[in-house]
Design brief:
By secondary structure, this protein is α/β, with parallel strands linked by helices. The chain has two domains: 195 residues, P-loop containing nucleotide triphosphate hydrolases (Rossmann fold, 3-Layer(aba) Sandwich), CATH 3.40.50.300; 83 residues, no CATH class. Helix content is 33%, strand content 29%. The chain contains ten helices and 13 strands. The strands form three sheets. A six-stranded mixed β-sheet has the order 5-6-7-3-8-9, sandwiched between helices. A four-stranded antiparallel β-sheet has the order 11-12-10-13, covered by helices on one side. A three-stranded antiparallel β-sheet has the order 2-1-4, covered by helices on one side. β8 and β9 form a beta hairpin. It is globular, with a radius of gyration of 21 Å. GO terms for molecular function: ATP binding; ATP hydrolysis activity. This is ABC transporter ATP-binding protein.
Length: 296
Amino acid sequence: MTLAIHTESLSKRYRRHLALDDCTLAIPDGRIVGLVGPNGSGKSTLLGLASGMIAPTSGSIEVLGQRPAVSADQLARVGFVAQDAPVYSRLTVTDHLELGARLNPKWDQAFAERRIRERGLDLKQKAGSLSGGQRAQLALTVAAAKRGELLVLDEPVAALDPLARRGFMRDLLDFVDELEVSVILSSHLLGDLAQVCDHLIVLANGRVHVSGDVSDLLAVHYRITGRAGDPYRLPADAELIHTENSRDESSVIVRSTSPIPGAEAVDLEDMTLAYLTRATTTGPVGPTAAMTGADR
């Protein structure tokens, strides 16, 4: 199996703050990866390590089989869009494309011009006068036109309206098909991620709490609902993830490789929120208990 990102016991410390702690991941290529976690969970740190902008304190990381930013060729294989889709406000759209062509050996000018034309952007307009959605589209175009093998996107749609977000997410699906590129996308918007992502990573407290292909994860997570106070009959291998209680009803989300009669399926949003709730109410969990899917 070819891996887009592979980490072993990866950690990053900023003075006294441990931003990422003992992170082990194996992300296959060809995936759209949703990276989820509360503020301060380590998402931006992980993406910064993957793009080569920062170096790990300990452990290792490989991107497309090599250390990040180890060479100019390796840098060209990864496109990166930081938070708020930063562009150069005084440069025109044309200036951005010309700069991209100068800096990237595999630059696809025809692809870039077609995307700009399809998105209705004015080549002569300065980036500072574009709307938030237009700036995001410009930044995504520049990153994708590098013709790399991995797109790293750090909260690119956080400030966009729903219509602009939908267009941005639709483009990601097109990129995977047309450019044969892997994508790792950090976002708080679980509904958007559920539409496009086929691999999930949940980070909290700087640690991985769950990761794997979405289909595999959903196949082993269940919701069981009953009257408050009634005991649950669970398989021996079942792991309790989250419990919700009301006056008359109790609901639990569990992970189990064994079928649970009468249990309901969960969707990506419910499963993710269950892990995030557990992480923020009980603190970090050990790596063995936390990992599922590709990491187990």
